[in-house]
Amino acid sequence: MSTARKVIKCKAAVLWELNKPFSIEEVEVAPPKAHEVRIKIVAVGICRSDDHAVTGTMMTPVPAILGHEAAGIVESVGEGVTTVKPGDKVIPLFIPQCGKCRICKNPESNFCLKNDLTNPQGTLQDGTSRFTCRGKPVHHFIGVSTFSQYTVVDEIAVAKIDAASPLEKVCLFGCGFSTGYGSAVKVAKVTPGSTCAVFGLGGVGLSVVMGCKAAGAARIITVDINKAKFAKAKELGATECINPQDYKKPIQEVLKEMTDGGVDFSFEVIGRLDTVAELSAHQFIHPFIHSKTIFWAFPKSTALSYAKQRGEMKGQKI
Ligand SMILES: NC(=O)c1ccc[n+]([C@@H]2O[C@H](COP(=O)([O-])OP(=O)(O)OC[C@H]3O[C@@H](n4cnc5c(N)ncnc54)[C@H](O)[C@@H]3O)[C@@H](O)[C@H]2O)c1
Ligand SMILES: [Zn+2]
Ligand SMILES: [Zn+2]
Known about the structure:
Layout: E1 8-15, E2 23-29, E3 36-45, H1 48-55, E4 64-65, E5 69-77, E6 89-92, H2 102-105, E7 131-133, E8 136-138, E9 150-154, E10 158-160, H3 167-170, H4 176-187, E11 195-199, H5 203-214, E12 219-223, H6 230-236, E13 240-242, H7 251-258, E14 265-268, H8 273-285, E15 292-295, H9 299-305, H10 307-315
């Protein structure tokens, strides 16, 4: 029996309050409105940014359904949807692509102005939520909310993918892989024969390694305090793996010695402000022509820049 145009009851992980465990709940997922798409989530990844949202360093209104790295199948579409149809395999996009704003039109950027990251409302584009739980509305998270068996997203926040795609693998395109690989290939534009340093070997860092390798880097030096990550890093292209805890000197000194003065490209993919500061200083001392540092996340500094906004949100008791 078709579920189109009906409310779907399903399981979701609800975050009722910051710094509390998720609660597995039955939620109601309303049908998609015009220009929206309801998706059956088949595979979902966990990214560190979900954890930043739980702790409040990445701002989002609660209660909310988090999750932003997933793949699924379109269950039904709202009026006016033309780019996907029921049965299509899709990846939800936490940075939408309206295709019309000045950022979407700029080939150097993709941070669409319709995103829900810079000034998070926890809703779809029309300002409302499709989720309820125990009679209360529950917020969306950056327009995707994938820790739910079903979710609703705006049509501009969904990408159709090949029907043969293995969803349990391609779900990583939803965040970690695109972020890491893209930061090496598109943002830093790693050059053939260069030396790269990658700090942090989570899903994003490992994807940076793949990007550096694809770009033809000669040396990819990876840095992590968890040695268990090194085998996978080597498999994906790391040429050397080092643990800062094995050295008495600061890791930037170790890297300078290893590389005759410094690396060409460095990537901070741990998410620590102090590592970012150290890398900036390191680059400042060695102004190589091509030297470039890419920071993918600094939750604490993000929290600082959002402090005013956060105060306002607290004031509203959201
Ligand atoms: N678009 C974006 O800006 C974007 C997208 C995805 C993730 N992120 C951010 O990127 C960061 C990494 O995400 P992830 O999911 O790969 O995280 P993760 O937690 O899976 O991986 C982090 C890695 O850093 C290592 N690490 C921790 N402390 C360290 C230290 N002092 N020195 C060296 N290594 C250390 C950990 O052992 C781990 O392997 C997070 O802060 C996340 O929020 C940003
Ligand atoms: Zn992420
Ligand atoms: Zn746009």
